[in-house]
Amino acid sequence: MSERYDPQVAEPKWREIWAKADLFRALSPQEAGDAPKAYVLEMFPYPSGRLHVGHVRNYAMGDVVARHKKAKGYNVLHPMGWDAFGMPAENAAMERGVHPGEWTYANIAAMKAQFHKLGLSLDWSREFATCDPDYYGEQQRLFLKFLEKGLVYRKASKVNWDPVDQTVLANEQVIDGRGWRSGAVVEQRDLTQWFFRITEYAQDLLDKLETLDRWPEKVSTMQANWIGRSEGLQMRFEWAGDGPAGFDGGVEIFTTRPDTLHGASFIAVSPDHPLTQHLAQSDPDLAAFRAQCAQGGTSEADIEKAEKIGYDTGLRVAHPLRPGETLPVWTANFVLMGYGTGAIFACPAHDQRDFEFARKYALPILPVVRPTGAAAEEASETDAGLDWVRTGSGAHMSEAYTGPGTLMNSGSWDDLSIDAGKKVAIKAMSDCGLGAGKVNFRLRDWGVSRQRYWGCPIPVIHCPDCGIVPVPEGDLPVRLPDDVSFDKPGNPLVHHPRWKSTTCPSCGHDAERETDTLDTFNDSSWYFARFASATDMEERAYWLPVDQYVGGVEHAVLHLLYARFFSRAMRDVGEVDLPDGEPFSGLFTQGMVTHATFKAADGRWLQPAEVEIRGAAAIEKATGATVEVGPVEKMSKSKKNTVDPDAIIAAYGADTARWFVLSDSPPERDVEWTQAGVEGAARFMQRIWGLFEALSHPAGGPVAENDAGALEIRRAAHKATQAVDTAIEEFRFNSAIAAIHDWVNQLKKAEQLGPGVRDARLESASMLARCLTPFMPHLAEACWAKLGQEGLVSAAAWPEVEPALLVEDTVTLPIQVNGKRRSELTVSKAAVPTEVEAAALALPELKPHLEGKAVKKVIVVPGRIVNIVAV
RNA sequence: GCCCGCGUGGUGGAAUUGGUAGACACGAGGGACUUAAAAUCCCUUUCCUGUAUCAGGAGUGCCGGUUCGAGCCCGGCCGCGGGCACCA
Description:
This protein is an alpha+beta fold. The protein has 28 helices and 36 strands. The strands form eleven sheets. A four-stranded parallel beta sheet has the order 2-1-25-26, covered by helices on one side. A four-stranded antiparallel beta sheet has the order 4-3-7-17. Strand 1, helix 3 and strand 2 (75-77) form a beta-alpha-beta unit. The longest helix has 23 residues, at 707-729.
């Protein structure tokens, strides 16, 4: 009986050997010589304190790529660090009285120990945490360069204000419009804040998406939608009569549907529009309406879901196309100040939101687009849903019509297509001087101010005389004070007795530091450049862009867009040499690891480990109480539905954990974590070990050659190597693992073939060890050593595939009759279609299916299929 | 609400991208070995019908379409998930 493989003994041993050999340190450009570079990066983790299986999956994937690239001869950079600023550290400080920095660095130490156990091929020599003063000092320097370049400015914008706690809340801290701690109804409040001019790059950020051919299509689409380029008309509606003082020009609006101008029913301006603010000063009802609109959170979902309400200002504007007609001016909460001009004209017949609003407030609805295409064809004469087309009256509409069509009720524009109508409308408005065509983006400038302690201080000083003065470069970093208190709500930097007091670098008078810190998305927007090199611009240029970036889909828009902005801004201030501004040439977005959520009766979330499933019921282990099993969701700290990989590593080893998270689901898809299957992975590990054990004890006796058996073994090994190779390159790790399963099963069977195939088995096993390395690196080392091979398999080259062993000279084709498989036929690969057709028609199994029918057509797809069409 | 995905056996999933649906694995059932257990090995395992190592039919969330041929393409629904600018 062969000895079992013990990962608890073997894994630490191999990791120590790797560390001593300094195997995973990236070579300098000079050391690397002719070897091509590969920068493999996974999104660095937030140091929550514990790894969860989502991390294991993410980093195992990156490690497969990094180890594969290394075996293929690349000079690989595969670094790791910590996205260490953020709210959880402050929450811990408030809840447990521990300093955010202390908490964070303790978490980093704990997680790093867990990381080491995974056997990842990481270059730890470049490690940093974003809360290291060294790192954030550099970030402050970048901020000042951006400021100098005009990419940074201040303006008023809205925050979620908790009136009880007197503090700003993050969107996730607003639950159903109320503060998470106080339960008070959250108000929107204006605050002057810092912004990055990301919109400066809007067009380029959009255009370059097309060049990112190794990005998932869906991510590019999401980014394109987020940037939201739209072409439309910006125009002025002039007052009918006198307008309010200071607003002489009328109301400036933006629309993407200028073709529907004849159907304009009313003007709607944002509650935050200067006009609304002005009118509210003398109209208490309007002021009350504005206050009502300011209730609830600032998130887009909150705003969109809020009931649509409006207030008639009593003002009227002239219809630009219909002399004598006037339109009322309303304030409406569905019009956002941040988009376009903060004012629209509403055409209720062809916009659902406008439609609902018009119905609610009994405003006119005039259809101006006659449906064409599918919608019109489907509608019969008796279809009441389209009565409005015949009558031309909006009174008969049950919903807005937004499909294709031609104009109606539009005077001389009648019968124009929508596109032609848009052009004519823009021309008409520019001819009369009321407006012009305009490109508008949905993308807004990036608000980077946070009223929090645990973030990168914004390095400016407010001087009563000089205004805003940058902190001189020599004084960087502006360090966070250590002696802070979280007793009071709000920003501890404001409450600190001394920290903000300073002198103006320009005039020397008393001045105050900026107390806002930077959004933590800043930290993760350039860390990849810091990994490439902290100081050496040439080395940065060598490594960048990242060749393969791996992370969760949840970052598809914000993080990736901000990083793309940063690399452009850094390029434009001379901090990085990236001509096209793109930081990640290859991107893979892995699916999330999900898990059921558990909630106790008192509302506490419970970790899976605290819950025991008994049949259909779930019981809290500690109390025996019934637990509510919630929906399967993304693993998150807040819902506590995370799984600690340490237990699995302790019981089965890191290789088993790595194998398991990669084996079943395709990497891009979500995977629901279940304990089941880990044993299977562990068993498989022993099965592999058994193969190598068996080979290490050569059987005695005479050797009878078994050429046929040996050839089959060799073919399988070379085909499997090829399959694993392409599967890794295409991010189909689960397919690679399936190929390895097949391979191992075949090698296991080959043990029965006797000593005549020993050489073939040895070759196959040596290739297997190398193909296994990216997935189960510790086991692969042990297997490699068992074979008596030189050196470390982690440093070995990928096995060479002999092309001659991959080709088959025959192929088995399915034979269909009328699309149903009735037989199969094995033919030479070189067979010409006419021969194949004749052979197929002669098959006896086909007789019953062809009887009484005439063969109309025979489709022969060489190497694929034969389909006989018979009627 | 808006944007982006996903939906295949008891379970995770495979299917050279329009060409044999269910590879590979988990689980389950049966068997071998064993005093017994563990471990290991072998077999069966989409559903229905029948004359049951065989033959026929159905089948990839639902309804319809294109095609010689659809899990894959198109249209419409249903369900689930992610993102929505202060979670990271």
